[in-house]
């Protein structure tokens, strides 16, 4: 097989870890061969997102199946016999087919979670501050902001184009009980909102540092809503 030369630099700690690993191997491979094997193993673990079960995990699942039967669990969404047969037969793909809602390659990105938290934080201050304005100040908000200043309420994210942000927001609010002000709302705005929210969060950042023991002022709310 044709090979290509590949050079890389490692810090001393990583080199020592590689050396420790290769010393434990029966044939004590060279550093280059050790790196090749480790890379091959790592890529196999990452793989294509398909299910892979080790021998130890197979035994644990078999014991859980026996425990499941012993407890006579009823009305479960899981079919333990199907799971056992799929694993015993090596039909791991069948598990993903049957339990696609649980077994998938999706994971929320940390940056998306942070962005949703920032948006919810911004809007919680806006709604709280607006609720405490006088009637005269609320009229000023409506006059200077327009339609967006009439019903000052967090509308959520677009279910078609911003569904990841919408899903994160719903989980934070309904399952983690964060930002409970927005609980029991649909949160599907039915129109894109993220670009505007990003502008609002950028403006709100410096304000947030000074919101100690006070609410947003009328001018601050107007500035945010006009973003």
Could you please describe the fold and organization of this structure?
Helix content is 57%, strand content 0%. The protein is extended and about 80 Å long. The model has no long low-confidence stretch (mean pLDDT 89). Helix 9 runs antiparallel to helix 10. The protein has ten helices and no strands. It has three domains: 27 residues; 44 residues, no CATH class; 116 residues, yfbu gene product, domain 2 (Orthogonal Bundle), CATH 1.10.3190.10. By secondary structure, it is mainly alpha-helical.
List the helices and strands and how they pair.
Blueprint: H1 12-23, H2 31-46, H3 55-71, H4 80-88, H5 92-98, H6 110-131, H7 135-145, H8 163-175, H9 194-208, H10 218-225
Concise account of the structure shown:
The chain is mainly α. 57% of the residues lie in helices and 0% in strands.
Number of domains: 3
CATH architecture of the largest domain: Orthogonal Bundle
CATH-defined fold name of the largest domain: yfbu gene product, domain 2
Mean pLDDT: 89
Radius of gyration: 27 Å
Please tally the helical runs, counting DSSP H or I stretches of 4 or more residues: 10
* Secondary-structure element order, N to C: HHHHHHHHHH
The gross shape turns out to be extended
Identify the CATH homologous superfamily of the largest domain: yfbu gene product, domain 2
What are the low-pLDDT stretches, counting only 5+ consecutive residues below 50? none
Structural class: mainly alpha
Helix content bin:
55-70%
Query: What is the top-level CATH class of the largest domain?
Result: Mainly Alpha
The largest pleated sheet is described as:
none
Strand content: under 5%
Give the N-terminus to C-terminus distance in angstroms.
60 Å
Number of strands: 0
